[in-house]
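Much of what follows relies on a compact textual record of a protein's fold. An example makes this concrete, so a full record is given next.
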Amino acid sequence: MIKSVLISTSWIFCILLLITMFPVIAESASVSLTEESFDNRTCFECHDGREVIKVLDTSPYAENGEKRDLVAIPPNLYATGVHARMLCTDCHHHIVHLQPPHQAEGLKKVDCASCHEALAQSGEQKAHAPPSPGNEKVRSNIKKYRSSFHARPNRDNPDFPNATCHECHDSHFFSIPMDQGSPAYGRWRLTINKLCGKCHEDQIEEYDVSVHGIALKDKGNLKSATCIDCHTAHEVTGAHLEVFKLQSPDTCGHCHQARKKTYRSFYHGQMTKIGFSETAKCYDCHGSHKIFSAKDPRSLVHPKNRLKTCQKCHDGQRRPLATEGFASFSPHDDAMDYDQAPQLWIAARFMNVLEWVVFVFFSLHTVLWWYREWRERRNETGSSGLAMSGLKMEEGSRHFQRFPLVWRVAHLLFALVVMILLLTGMILFNTESSWAPALVRLLGGAAKLGFVHHVMAVLLVSIFLLHIVHVLQHLFRKKGFDWFGPDSLLPNRKDFTDCIDMFRWFVGRGEKPRFDRWTYYEKFDYWAVFWGVAVIGSSGAILAFPHIAGEYMGGWVFNVSIKLHGEEAFLAAVFLFTVHFSNNHFRPSKLPPPDVVMFTGSLSLEELQRDHPAQLERIRAKGELDSYLVEKPSVAMVLGSKLLGLLLLATGLVLLFMAVSGYTW
């Protein structure tokens, strides 16, 4: 009996002990279950998408009590993403409860950027841990994103950005195929526009019917442009911003390289390249999303629509009104394609031939002359030596007046204007050079340079016309002037024979010609100005008043004028700063430079006898030498002239470097 009671008592004690310990055991079991259950399989029990589950919508856009579908993450798709080996709570670290609501506080957005940056920092702290290429790429994209339009606060809800990483990438399934030739990469390309279209519905509707959309979706051309090809994936900016406008030709040119090249060859492309955003870009003429073939009647550049398209900018208010002739301008004419642009092809070939003839002839002339003088100076012999025989003592101490004051002033002004024109103009024709955009910014921008260029052009033409008036007035006042005599700048037979004799002297086959007042190379310099001003001036006038020129001559004249204007300016720059400088400043008999006769107006009789012996003999024979003699220029005048000459020489050589380095051969 006692034994039975003891057994019963023991059982009762055990039962009471179990009852007492149950809360502790239950809590321990609960904690253990919770810790073990925070794996992805537990999350997928509700979030696998097999059934639609409605939950309270806590987003800032939801109305009170509104419900939404629970986010569905099919496990098989999650397994294909780059985050497949991560736990859900690695990103959703604010989740602390197994049962909903999972988070202790309100709904929080996952911050992809902070996670990847922390990952990189932890790797950097390990001395032997090289940076992950994948994570470095992500960090680079994060930096781009934070300065983009998508990262800005949303207008309707400033607490949230316009777009997050997850909204574009879907971090649960994110996996971009690296092999661009793989079928998977092609399938991914086809999803890009649909993804962007979730927010940009109107733009996608236009894109779908465009040449790009049809080529991609209907024809399966995976090289056709998608949203990110034009707007980029992470550096998305507003299309109204200057940075987007200036970059757009390069963006389009990534696929349309030939069109980009021709666009850059003419005014719109040239101005854009040097940083002026107010000229037409690709999308101004062709459209942005709704782009059609130029042969399609819906295209903005179709012949029936082209005038209206041009008048968007050339509207008669900001710019002169575009006319039918103006609108026939083709911004993509190729100077190498005769069938496409015969007038431009002829102009380009003409200028190429002219440049080669001038450069080859005068390069040979300059090199041979320099070598002959150098050899004579080394041997201290030759007909170019200074001979003082026959000169009176008082004559040797005075100078010969070669250029009157009006000529010297005109020459100086002309030189300054030409240099400024070359500086401001060569920038436009050498936009592919490394120095052009930087120089534009340094000088105040493209608009200011254009204004300066136009002012200088007016001054150049004015100086040129005043010179012609002055010369004609002088000729008509001078009775019995010999138009082909030694005082005339018109070419004559002696100039041709002198040129031939000069080459014979270069190679030691004859004596040096005895030049009179004007040499054949000086006459060439003089008349080259007439040719240059005529070509550059007329083409410049056409470009300055395109609405008038286009109305009466047609749009083809713009491309021809641009070609002539640029090529003739290049020819002038190279000729002036090589041949002209060498003839007048860098020949051995002229060293050290500069020769200042064009600034002082006079030269010694020794120099006159060396360079123009026939003139000196002729004047002395007539007994007129005294009327040409003047006092030697003062030391201050000579010093100032040399400093000015050195400055102009240095400027010219810099301009020469700019012209040659930026020229497209």
